[in-house]
Amino acid sequence: MIQRDGGSVSVWQPGSEDYKPINKLENITYDVIIAGGGITGISTALQLQNAGLKCVVLEAQTLCFGTTGGTTAHLNTLLDTPYTTIIKKFGEEKAKQVADAAKGAIELIKHNIETYKIDCDFATASAFLFSKDEKQTKELENIFDSCQKVGLNVNYCTGIPVPLAFEKAIEVKDQAKFNPVKYVYAIARAFEEKGGVIVQQCRVLKHTKKHDEVSTKIIEIETSSRKSFFCRMLIYATHIPTGVNILHMRCAPYRSYAMAVKLSGDHYPADLSYDMYDPYHYYRTQKIDNGQYLIVGGEDHKTAHETNTYKCFNILEAHIRKHFDVEEIQYKWSSQYYEPADGLPYIGDMPEDIDNVYVATGFSGNGMTYSHVAALILTALLANNKKRYDDLFNPLRIKPIAGFKNFVKENADVAKNLLKKIFSPVDEESFSALAKGEAKIIEYEKKKIAIQKDSNGNLHAVNPTCTHLKCQVAWNDVEQSWDCPCHGARYDNEGNVLNAPADKALEQVSIIKTIHQKTVKQ
């Protein structure tokens, strides 16, 4: 079973084994290095390799370790940011470009499936959006009008696939669903067969500008493998870029919860369905290995802003059982995404960085669709020096924050300073009352320490200060991870990095056992 960036298991993990790359690295300067082996990194790598560029994908863990392995895999032109909002902020013509980009992304996925004969349970579907009260209905009517304006195939309908009461509903056709891990593995193999290289267990730590013997600008990539790589262009497809960047101030991390459910009987709802609460619930059916699952998600919240993450599962389960005849809930998991400040993702030049460094981030809840929007935009830009969709998704649309360069400079050595030894060993006896799987942050000798007891009863202690920008992490009991509430960095119970933007582990604190001498009466 593939691993993922958390303690819970998603519906996609059990049927997949770790990806096994076939190509070896060459001692050359590559055209493009892509950091990140999720759906964005792999789909972009394939497009660039097809365009004639020699590419390497560097993945910190294994393919689909991050959000790709925890998505619910909706392919939408009906986006999380409604077209009413996009029209208001960017204008009707730009909103049409967003809709066209989403359509183009789904068409690219279809093209890849047909071209490479990929078996990933892909199916076209309609998306149903429904209101429950007068206020939601008014909003729904506005969304319907805006969908018509941008050219979506939308109509009002009298029924929805899921057994929930509703006041009004619309149907948007030409949506889709699939198995994301099967898809990514297949296009990864196609990428390698065309000469591309994939390196796993290789985290990108730092990039710097260099010049070769003919004064050509190249980029040196330092990695966790202690090996440096060289390229002309670098793409961060890591969900959120590492290091310190203005994008971290423009993308808010969120967690979303999902369950894969076996229903009594054979009636599984078709298509894709969404209510209009905030946060909203989303529903779909997926066939996996000859079995059917109802996949339901929701209960989103900002990362590390919910102290009892199991409560989110409990609320979601109660919602599912209220409306569906549940035989068994087989999988429950959570996953992370990033909300962009103005509702659209950031795809293109990395702000406040050297030339030829690019990024794709801020996909909101539409990562499967925007991954391929990013592949199309970055391929046009890097391979042909052309812009797609004008500057609509360009990260440089962000207005610089006054003094931000000084902010970056002052925080560049945060992690280095944090790794100074500032703790005395912790007395194990003091924390023996912790239950298995439980964690807390305590003050010990006037220093805060994050303590966790694993399923075997072993204690783990780390410095709770995030190595990214000094925020204090919080324990996620669902995923058994330390999560940062500021920019979404996540760490396992030993402090190892699970999610960017951090690229350095939390400092471990040593634990000593207290030996008590028994007094024996003579």
List keywords for this structure.
single chain, 522 residues, alpha+beta, FAD/NAD(P)-binding domain, D-Amino Acid Oxidase, Chain A, domain 2, Rieske Iron-sulfur Protein, 9-stranded mixed β-sheet, 8-stranded mixed β-sheet, 26 strands, globular, disordered C terminus
Structure write-up:
The structure is a single chain. This protein folds into three domains: 30-69 and 182-248 and 343-406, FAD/NAD(P)-binding domain (3-Layer(bba) Sandwich), CATH 3.50.50; 122-176 and 252-339, D-Amino Acid Oxidase, subunit A, domain 2 (D-Amino Acid Oxidase, Chain A, domain 2, 2-Layer Sandwich); 414-512, Rieske Iron-sulfur Protein (3-layer Sandwich), CATH 2.102.10. By secondary structure, it is α+β, with helices and mostly antiparallel strands. It is built from nine helices and 26 strands. The chain has helices spanning 39-50, 83-90, 92-115, 134-149, 180-193, 309-323, 367-384, 404-411, 414-418, and strands at residues 30-35, 55-58, 74-75, 123-131, 154-157, 168-177, 197-199, 204-211, 217-223, 228-236, 251-263, 272-274, 282-288, 291-302, 326-340, 346-349, 357-361, 426-427, 439-444, 447-453, 459-462, 474-476, 481-483, 490-491, 497-499, 511-512.
